Amino acid sequence: MTNSLLRILTISSVLLATPIKALAAEGTVTFEMLKPETALTAAQAALERCRDEGFQATIAVVDRFGGVQVVLRDQLASPRTVRTAIGKARTAVGFRTNTTELVSVTDYGQPASGLRHLPGVVMVGGGVIIEAAGSLVGGIGVSGAPGGDMDDLCAFAGIDAIEDELEF
Fold this sequence. Notes:
47% of the residues lie in helices and 16% in strands.
């Protein structure tokens, strides 16, 4: 009985002294994701910026895999802006590039123009990736402003609002 107890204590002390990462399986990965509260803060800041500019818009924040975390539609924003904002955020995350940068490279006649025909892809400005310490953590999509550049303006305001929370 004493030997068993001594063995258990020895094994326990070794396990407690071993760093957690050393116990992780070699076949797994770790990654950062936005907390729901952080996603909400970004969406609210983007919506506020759109309102300040006089735009009725929808803001969508997705996680690094394109899963929807937050959608805010202003009271007079068109219902179609919901799907568009989600599509922009998912497109940015899926291609790991802001949608404004994808517009010209996927334009008709360009070698990558076929990407525009993929299901759910929205190749217009307003989808912006959210990064933390160089790692993709999500995306924000804005729809409802009078152009992609104005949608971008609102999206970047959302990211600016959470920038301090993303530095680690």
